[in-house]
Design brief:
This protein has helices spanning 11-24, 29-47, 62-76, 94-105, 138-148, 197-201, 228-231, 260-272, 287-293, 305-311, 328-339, 349-356, 370-377, 381-386, 388-399, 434-447, 452-474, 485-492; strands at residues 7-9, 53-58, 80-85, 110-112, 122-126, 156-159, 181-185, 188-189, 203-207, 223-225, 249-253, 277-282, 298-301, 317-320, 344-346, 364-366, 402-405, 411-413, 419-421. The protein is of the alpha/beta class. The chain has 2 domains: 7-221, 3-Layer(aba) Sandwich (Rossmann fold), CATH 3.40.50.10260; 228-492, Ribokinase (UDP-N-acetylmuramoyl-L-alanine:D-glutamate ligase), CATH 3.40.1190. Strand 15 (344-346), helix 12 (349-356) and strand 16 (364-366) form a beta-alpha-beta unit. Helix 17 (452-474) crosses helix 18.
């Protein structure tokens, strides 16, 4: 198996990769199928070395051919292999049919799937591949459900993609296999990492099938995973003569009545990733409380937009929205922030205000979760989740700048390919204040003069990695926003 690549592709691009390999590099489809079967068997040996029995569920497409090849090679190594076929062999490609016939020639029976699967040590899902675009039905749906009946007791290896999952959107098409491991071949499909994909894929592994690396240069990937190794040039060690004036002044605007904590969380996050100065513009009643909670932050009581205008003169980045509310006070402060034309993060209630008065700017980072994204696009959150890539593209087209569509498999788009995708983060982030942390982190990077796309990519990465570090120490359940702060500081100094 190969190192997990950062590049992500559509199903159409992956099929084109295969056509280039077979058409221009003298590697036949049958050879690729044999290599895929061998890689899958190696994966089983690596992850389940005690396994003696392997059950393979094969469809009629090339995915099924990979499964037949795995079965053939496992039989040759004296594993006890059971094979169940769904669909008519008349529908098979030449290579898949040949792989099936090789098994029959060895005297091993291939069973017709009916409704149940026997017990085994490992189940291999080779039923439906990356070309699926319609709801799973009939015997295919029965087979998926039969596999899932065993998943609490028996590990499942999905070849290329869990059957039933849409390779481009990550949407489960009616039903989908819950895999323990997904072994992807040739190119990683974007749907593995966003939408419902992470719920079904388990651990994602990759094998390039030994194809020439040059073939990947012919494609611009549709997306690329973010990482500190590739995106953190702006976090290089500081010069010894550096001072706070070089590292920017971030202003957090928010904290309406009852919500000062949101502004405080965002401000501390900005300071922890290195903003030279961090200030909060909030309701007058909150200033003393916030100063006591974190004396390094400067807090200003603001009751009108005219008061805010003077305060923002020394700022060079803004983060607007944490605890802002949607009152007339909030509307006035948000509009005044926009008028500064400073680079800014627009989050939380500021996004809700924006949905009521749409504007397009190139100098901001919008950070909606699916519900806020739905309000910005005038649709349902279910529609956002059904195709998150389409949603982030449309948000960026309508509102400009950079859009960070939060959620599992967070997407980051500035309207140009490749879209960036984060595989960092965990369900422990489903608690109040986590979005405020991200707004502060990205704002703190903007204050340090990061370009807006870089600030968004590095910010999302730091945020997700910090949450993962917190979960490693104490578990996911019960993680609080402030638990991320010590990890943010270490990660921003590339200590990990």
């Amino acid at each position: 198996m190969s190192t997990l690549p950062h590049e992500l592709y559509t199903a159409e691009q992956t099929r084109e990769l295969e056509r280039i390999v077979t058409g221009q590099h003298n590697i036949s489809s049958a050879t690729l199928m044999a290599r895929a079967g061998g890689a899958a068997l190696d994966c089983i040996k690596c992850h389940w070395p005690q396994a003696e029995r392997i059950l393979v569920v094969c469809g009629t497409g090339n995915n099924g051919g990979d499964g037949f090849e795995l079965a053939r090679q496992a039989i040759a190594e004296e594993y006890r292999v059971s094979i169940f076929q769904v669909g008519d062999e008349k529908e098979m490609s030449e290579e898949t049919f040949a792989a099936r016939e090789a098994i029959l020639a060895s005297g091993v029976e291939i069973h017709r799937f009916e409704d149940k699967l026997p017990t085994t040590d490992v189940i291999v899902d080779a039923l439906l591949g990356i070309g699926l675009s319609r709801e799973v039905s009939g015997y295919h749906a029965l087979a998926v459900n039969a596999i899932n009946e065993h998943t609490k007791r028996i590990p499942v290896l999905a070849l290329d993609i869990p059957s039933g999952l849409h390779a481009n959107t990550g949407r489960a098409l009616g039903t989908a296999v819950h895999a323990t491991i997904t072994l992807s071949f040739l190119g990683l499909n974007k749907g593995l990492f966003t939408g419902e994909g992470p719920n079904y894929c388990g651990q994602v592994c990759f094998d390039s099938l030994k194809v020439p690396s040059a073939i990947y240069k012919a494609f611009t990937p549709i997306a690329r995973r973010v990482s500190l190794e590739n995106d953190a040039a702006g976090l290089a060690p500081r010069e010894r003569t550096g001072h706070k004036g070089l590292y920017g002044h971030l202003f957090i605007i928010g904290g309406d009545h009852g919500m000062p904590g949101a502004a405080r969380v965002a401000a501390e996050a900005g300071a922890r990733v290195g903003s030279g100065l961090t200030s909060i513009a909030t309701r007058s009643a909150h200033g003393p409380i916030l100063n006591l909670a974190r004396p390094e932050l400067m807090c200003y009581g603001v009751e009108s937009a005219s008061e805010l205008e003077e305060l923002l003169r020394p700022a060079n980045a803004l983060s607007v929205g944490p605890g802002l509310g949607q009152s007339e006070w909030a509307i006035a402060l948000f509009q005044k922030a926009i008028e500064t034309n400073l680079p800014m993060v627009v989050d939380a209630d500021a996004l809700n205000l924006l949905s009521k008065n749409p504007q397009h700017h190139d100098n901001w980072v919008l950070t909606p979760h699916p519900g806020e994204a739905a309000r910005l696009l005038g649709c349902s959150s279910e529609e956002i989740q059904a195709d998150r890539f389409a949603a982030v593209y449309e948000l960026q087209r309508r509102y400009g700048g950079v859009v960070v569509l939060k959620g599992s498999g967070t997407l980051i788009s500035n309207g140009e390919a490749p879209t960036r995708l984060s595989t960092w983060g965990n369900p422990g982030m489903g608690s109040g204040g986590m979005g405020d942390v991200l707004a502060g982190v990205i704002g703190g990077l903007l204050a340090q003069h990061f370009p807006i796309m870089d600030a968004a990519c590095v910010g999302v990465t730091l945020h997700g990695m910090a949450a993962d570090k917190a979960a490693e120490l104490d578990g996911e359940r019960g993680t609080l926003a402030m638990d991320l702060m010590p990890h943010l500081r270490r990660l921003a100094n590339l200590i990990y």
